[in-house]
């Protein structure tokens, strides 16, 4: 049984975010534990106000790291502003933005939508679920029991929902689903490329982010899909294709629809057509049949492909799944493998953001950050933080030209630059979205 323990410190905003995390976890079949010692994952929603608070957060994180044999996730203000301090203190934790926590905790499972899920406008971000259900039968996933097989509404229906979001003020549309890559499979037609083209044809100034698409779902349309990305400037050059393991044997035991070579072919299609782009992928470590060589294959694949965004999850048994009946690995083994892969992850992701320093991009301001900062997304959906936003008259929904000045491993810092300067923007790094 997968269980969670969550502790929240600080303001009302943090408490609201924790409620959203819990709601997503319960929708995915998780339940609260009696305490951290009984939890498969412990979540610390942190605060940072004064130095004493920071010391308390580090102390509590270290205690939770010892108390739980499962994952530790740190989110909240201190995680975003001073995430490196947890690593420097030797705390084995995933440091994540709060809205990334459910995906990390849900053990590689598809996101869950209720039958009546409708588009939502949250600030300038429009959430567009394009279908419900999936076509997979993963041995570890409990979500499939709630969602069933994929059910795809017609393209025109989804386009009209996207158009309504744009008219309501959406500057970013997030196309979501259990597995966006299998949209249309139930009607015998691979319709995702056409749907994305149609959404991008809607009048208005906005960006589109494609949500999770399993490699097995998009393999076969990967060349066509990469062409769609290459010709549509409104599409973020970002693809989330969770590989889960670098071992074909483990993938077979997981009953994934792809093998490593198919994943590589998907990556190669996008690499061939896009320059500055982001590959996001997931790995599950400690699956019951994963041996040392299987784990090393995953490490080799990670070193080879070098995704710019990586989610590492320790396997946990879900009730009623076939994997729950397998003899599991010990918690120590899973924790060691997770720590080894997470260390490599930080190296790979940090390398990607370090390469951005000195480059110039056009970014969309998508939400407020901590203090007087704003969170922006560049054309490859990488996060760029701009500070002193109010002093500069920067609002959510604005489009800025920025120069990346530094990075903090998993995000970059940018300084606005003069749009009037003809040399202020590198053509290869910019999508043509004008300021609203």
From TrEMBL:
Q: Which residue ranges does the record assign to the TRAM domain?
A: 354-418
Gene3D superfamilies, alphabetically? Methylthiotransferase, N-terminal domain, tm_1862 like domain
Query: What remark does the entry make about the cofactor?
Result: Binds 1 or 2 [4Fe-4S] cluster. One cluster is coordinated with 3 cysteines and an exchangeable S-adenosyl-L-methionine.
- Give the EC number: 2.8.4.5
Give the molecular function GO annotations. Answer: 4 iron, 4 sulfur cluster binding; metal ion binding; tRNA (N(6)-L-threonylcarbamoyladenosine(37)-C(2))-methylthiotransferase activity
PROSITE patterns in the record:
MTTASE_N, MTTASE_RADICAL, RADICAL_SAM, TRAM
EC supergroup of this enzyme: transferase
Q: Which InterPro entries match?
A: Elp3/MiaA/NifB-like_rSAM, Methylthiotransferase, Methylthiotransferase_CS, Methylthiotransferase_N, Methylthiotransferase_N_sf, MiaB-like_arc_euk, rSAM, rSAM_horseshoe
List residues traversing the bilayer: none
Q: Where is this region: Disordered?
A: 415-436
- What keywords tag this UniProt record? 4Fe-4S, Iron, Iron-sulfur, Metal-binding, S-adenosyl-L-methionine, Transferase, tRNA processing
Sum up the protein's function in the record's words: Catalyzes the methylthiolation of N6-threonylcarbamoyladenosine (t(6)A), leading to the formation of 2-methylthio-N6-threonylcarbamoyladenosine (ms(2)t(6)A) at position 37 in tRNAs that read codons beginning with adenine.
Q: What family does this belong to?
A: Belongs to the methylthiotransferase family. CDKAL1 subfamily.
What this protein is called in its record is tRNA-t(6)A37 methylthiotransferase
In its UniProt entry, the species of origin is given as Halorubrum tibetense
């Amino acid at each position: 049984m997968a269980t969670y323990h969550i502790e929240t410190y600080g303001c009302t905003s943090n408490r609201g975010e924790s409620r959203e995390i819990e709601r997503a976890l319960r929708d995915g079949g998780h339940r609260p534990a009696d305490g951290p010692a009984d939890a498969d994952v412990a979540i610390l929603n942190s605060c940072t106000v004064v130095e004493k608070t920071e010391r308390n957060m580090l102390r509590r994180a270290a205690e939770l790291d010892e108390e739980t044999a499962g994952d530790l996730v740190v989110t909240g203000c201190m995680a975003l502003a001073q995430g490196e301090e947890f690593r420097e203190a030797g705390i084995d934790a995933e440091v994540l933005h709060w809205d990334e926590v459910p995906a990390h905790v849900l053990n590689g499972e598809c996101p869950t939508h209720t039958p009546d899920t409708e588009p939502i406008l949250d600030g300038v971000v429009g959430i567009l679920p394009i279908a419900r259900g999936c076509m997979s039968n993963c041995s570890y996933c409990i979500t499939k029991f709630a969602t069933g097989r994929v059910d795809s509404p017609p393209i025109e229906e989804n386009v009209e929902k996207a158009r309504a979001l744009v008219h309501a003020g959406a500057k970013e549309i997030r196309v979501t689903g259990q597995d966006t890559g299998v949209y249309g499979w139930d009607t015998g037609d691979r319709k995702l490329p056409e749907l994305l083209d149609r959404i991008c044809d809607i009048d208005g100034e906005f960006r589109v982010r494609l949500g999770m698409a399993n490699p097995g779902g998009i393999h076969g349309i990967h060349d066509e899909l990469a062409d769609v990305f290459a010709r549509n400037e409104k599409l973020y050059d970002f693809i989330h294709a969770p590989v889960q393991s670098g071992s074909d044997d483990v993938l077979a035991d997981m009953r994934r629809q792809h093998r490593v070579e198919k994943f590589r072919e998907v990556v190669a299609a996008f690499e061939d057509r896009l320059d500055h782009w982001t590959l996001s992928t997931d790995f599950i470590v400690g699956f019951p049949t994963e041996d040392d060589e299987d784990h090393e294959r995953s490490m080799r694949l990670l070193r080879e492909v070098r995704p710019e965004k990586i989610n590492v999850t320790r396997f946990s048994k879900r009730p009623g799944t076939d994997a729950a009946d397998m003899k599991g690995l010990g918690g120590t083994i899973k924790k060691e493998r997770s720590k080894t892969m997470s260390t490599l992850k930080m190296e790979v992701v940090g390398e990607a953001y370090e390469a951005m320093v000195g480059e110039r991009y056009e970014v969309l301001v998508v939400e407020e950050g901590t203090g007087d900062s704003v969170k922006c997304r560049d054309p490859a959906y990488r996060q760029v933080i701009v500070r002193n936003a109010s002093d500069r008259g920067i609002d959510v929904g604005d489009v800025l030209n920025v120069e990346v000045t530094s990075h903090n491993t998993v995000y970059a810092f940018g300084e606005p630059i003069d749009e009037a300067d003809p040399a202020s923007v590198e053509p290869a790094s910019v999508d043509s979205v004008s300021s609203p």
